[in-house]
């Protein structure tokens, strides 16, 4: 059964969506704020997210960014915001589609089916947004790392490097790929950047940075994250 996460702070809209979706044999979870949406996305692994942008605790684009930190699940925005700039902002943040309120249920269901078809063409999603090792935990949805239960302060660059590695557990990630993904295409030969930032990650997350267990160097090739 396809699982849908509905995120909206208007109870009547949530109620209407839940009734209509369940009548069509969808499994449905509902969230009324962004924090709950991110938690449910990480815990329940929905197949499609229906997301309102005007949430009480954060903007919907922040929810999109949090979800996109670890999954490619289709996100359909449902919003009363009509301006093209706001639509472009949501799509640039990672939304797949944009439906303006008020909307016809038939149109929404058609867009939902299209999102399901696109999803079926992609590779399976990672098993979890949360990765735990003996030394530290990484929450890709919340964009947070903790060590022994204490939050670890990472710079944006350190986080991007960490994310690029932990999303590929057990796989060699080449130096060129890491430089391109974290710093951009013009930095493909700046391997000294990698050495500096890998040393910082190990110092902050490894039990023994001089003998890393989780961030392994493959000399001359790249790095590997071992859970």
UniProtKB/TrEMBL annotation:
<keyword id="KW-0805">Transcription regulation</keyword>
<keyword id="KW-0804">Transcription</keyword>
<feature type="modified residue" description="4-aspartylphosphate">
    <location>
        <position position="52"/>
    </location>
</feature>
<dbReference type="GO" id="GO:0045893">
    <property type="term" value="P:positive regulation of DNA-templated transcription"/>
</dbReference>
<dbReference type="Pfam" id="PF00072">
    <property type="entry name" value="Response_reg"/>
</dbReference>
<keyword id="KW-0597">Phosphoprotein</keyword>
<keyword id="KW-0902">Two-component regulatory system</keyword>
<dbReference type="InterPro" id="IPR036388">
    <property type="entry name" value="WH-like_DNA-bd_sf"/>
</dbReference>
<dbReference type="InterPro" id="IPR001789">
    <property type="entry name" value="Sig_transdc_resp-reg_receiver"/>
</dbReference>
<feature type="DNA-binding region" description="OmpR/PhoB-type">
    <location>
        <begin position="128"/>
        <end position="227"/>
    </location>
</feature>
<feature type="domain" description="OmpR/PhoB-type">
    <location>
        <begin position="128"/>
        <end position="227"/>
    </location>
</feature>
<feature type="domain" description="Response regulatory">
    <location>
        <begin position="3"/>
        <end position="116"/>
    </location>
</feature>
<dbReference type="Pfam" id="PF00486">
    <property type="entry name" value="Trans_reg_C"/>
</dbReference>
<comment type="function">
    <text>Member of the two-component regulatory system KdpD/KdpE involved in the regulation of the kdp operon. Upon phosphorylation by KdpD, functions as a transcription regulator by direct binding to promoter regions of target genes to positively regulate their expression.</text>
</comment>
<dbReference type="InterPro" id="IPR001867">
    <property type="entry name" value="OmpR/PhoB-type_DNA-bd"/>
</dbReference>
<dbReference type="GO" id="GO:0000156">
    <property type="term" value="F:phosphorelay response regulator activity"/>
</dbReference>
<dbReference type="GO" id="GO:0000987">
    <property type="term" value="F:cis-regulatory region sequence-specific DNA binding"/>
</dbReference>
<dbReference type="GO" id="GO:0005829">
    <property type="term" value="C:cytosol"/>
</dbReference>
<keyword id="KW-0238">DNA-binding</keyword>
<dbReference type="InterPro" id="IPR039420">
    <property type="entry name" value="WalR-like"/>
</dbReference>
<dbReference type="GO" id="GO:0042802">
    <property type="term" value="F:identical protein binding"/>
</dbReference>
<keyword id="KW-0963">Cytoplasm</keyword>
<protein>
    <recommendedName>
        <fullName>Transcriptional regulatory protein KdpE</fullName>
    </recommendedName>
</protein>
<dbReference type="InterPro" id="IPR011006">
    <property type="entry name" value="CheY-like_superfamily"/>
</dbReference>
<dbReference type="GO" id="GO:0032993">
    <property type="term" value="C:protein-DNA complex"/>
</dbReference>
